[in-house]
Design goal:
Blueprint (H helix, E strand, L loop, with lengths): L7 E5 L7 H11 L4 E6 L4 H9 L4 E4 L4 H64 L6 H16 L3 H12 L10 H5 L6 H7 L2 H10 L8 H6 L20 H15 L11 H11 L6 H8 L7
Parallel strand pairs: 1-2, 2-3
C-alpha cells in the first residue's frame, strides 16, 4: 500500500490474495479519511451492509453504468475535498485560538504587573506616612515567606502568600493620615478607626478578580488565636493559615523597630514575647518553629 494516502480508492470485492472488504478494512485502519467505493458482480445485502459499516462511500453492482461510477467518484472526491478544507479551517481556528489565548495571557500579565506596581507604590506611600514603618510591608512579606518555607508551602502557595503579605495593610489608604503619623499611643477612638483597615483593604482587593487570594490575609491578619482579635473574632484554625503566618510576621517586624514609646526588641526579647503570645495572640505551632530555629528571622 502507498505510504501517502490517496483521496479515493475503487475496489472490486473479488480480488486475488485479498478480498475487497479486507482491503477496505485495512485502508480505513491506516487512512481513515480515504474514500472507498466497492464494485462487485455478486450483489448481497450482507456484503453491502458490511462494506458501508466499515466506512465505504458506496457499493456498486456489476454491470454498472459508467455515469453511476463517475457520479460516485465525483461525490467521493467532493467529500474528501470538503473534509480537507474543514481540517484546514479547524487548524486555522486552533492557531487563531492559541494566538488569542497568548494575547489574552500577555494582556493579563501586563495588567497584573501594572496593578501590582500601583499597589506597591501605594503601600510605599502608606509606609512613608509613618517613618517608623518604612518598608514594613516588604519586610512582612519576606518574613512570611521564611515561615512558609519552614511549614512546607509549595512555590505557587508562596507566590500567593507573598502578594497577600505585601498588601496586608492596603486598607490603611482609608485611614486618617493623622492617625497613621501619630507618634504616641493611639486613643481608644483612634484604635477603633485603625481597626477598620482590614475590612477597607478587603473591599479594595475584592474588586479585582485575580487578587482574590489576598483577601483572607488582608481581612484576617489581626485576628488572634484565642478569638479576641478583629474584625470577626475568629479563633484557632478558623483563622486562615496564611493570615496566621502574616500576623506573626507583622508583629515580629513591629517589635524589632524603634518606636517613640519603646526601643526595638532584641532577638531574645522577641522570642520571649512570641512565646508569651503563643496560643493567645499567635498560632503556637508557628511560634514553636521560630523557637526551634526553623525560621530565619533576620
Amino acid at each position: 500500500m502507498a505510504q501517502n494516502p490517496v483521496d479515493l480508492v475503487v475496489l472490486d470485492i473479488k480480488m486475488p490474495d485479498m478480498d475487497g472488504v479486507t482491503v477496505l478494512r485495512e485502508i480505513k485502519k491506516r487512512y481513515p479519511d480515504t474514500e472507498v467505493v466497492l464494485l462487485t458482480a455478486y450483489a448481497g445485502v450482507e456484503t453491502a451492509q458490511s462494506a458501508l459499516r466499515l466506512g465505504a462511500l458506496d457499493y456498486l453492482t456489476k454491470p454498472f453504468d459508467k455515469d453511476d461510477v463517475i457520479n460516485v467518484v465525483e461525490r467521493g472526491l467532493r467529500k474528501r475535498q470538503d473534509l480537507v478544507r474543514l481540517k484546514l479551517e479547524h487548524e486555522d481556528l486552533l492557531r487563531i485560538k492559541e494566538y488569542l489565548e497568548k494575547e489574552v495571557e500577555t494582556a493579563r500579565d501586563n495588567l497584573l504587573l501594572y496593578y501590582e506596581g500601583t499597589i506597591k507604590a501605594l503601600i510605599r506611600a502608606i509606609d512613608a506616612k509613618d517613618h517608623y514603618t518604612f518598608d514594613h510591608s516588604e519586610h512582612v512579606a519576606r518574613l512570611s515567606l521564611s515561615i512558609a518555607d519552614a511549614i512546607g508551602f509549595s512555590m505557587i502557595m508562596k507566590d500567593k502568600l507573598e502578594h497577600a503579605a505585601i498588601m496586608h495593610d492596603i486598607g490603611k489608604i482609608g485611614i486618617n493620615e493623622q492617625i497613621l503619623r501619630k507618634e504616641s499611643l493611639l486613643t481608644e477612638e483612634e484604635h477603633i478607626e485603625m481597626r477598620k483597615h482590614p475590612e477597607i483593604g478587603a473591599r479594595i482587593v475584592r474588586a479585582v478578580p485575580f487578587l482574590e487570594d489576598t483577601v483572607d490575609v488582608i481581612l484576617y491578619h489581626h485576628e488572634r488565636f484565642d478569638g479576641n482579635g478583629y474584625p470577626e473574632g475568629l479563633e484557632g484554625d478558623k483563622i486562615p493559615l496564611t493570615a496566621r503566618i502574616v500576623s506573626v510576621a507583622d508583629t515580629i517586624d513591629a517589635m524589632t523597630r524603634d518606636r517613640p514609646y519603646r526601643n526595638a526588641l532584641s532577638l531574645s526579647q522577641l522570642i520571649d514575647e512570641l512565646k508569651k503570645g503563643a496560643g493567645t495572640q499567635f498560632d503556637p505551632e508557628i511560634v514553636k518553629l521560630i523557637n526551634d530555629n526553623k525560621i530565619k528571622l533576620f
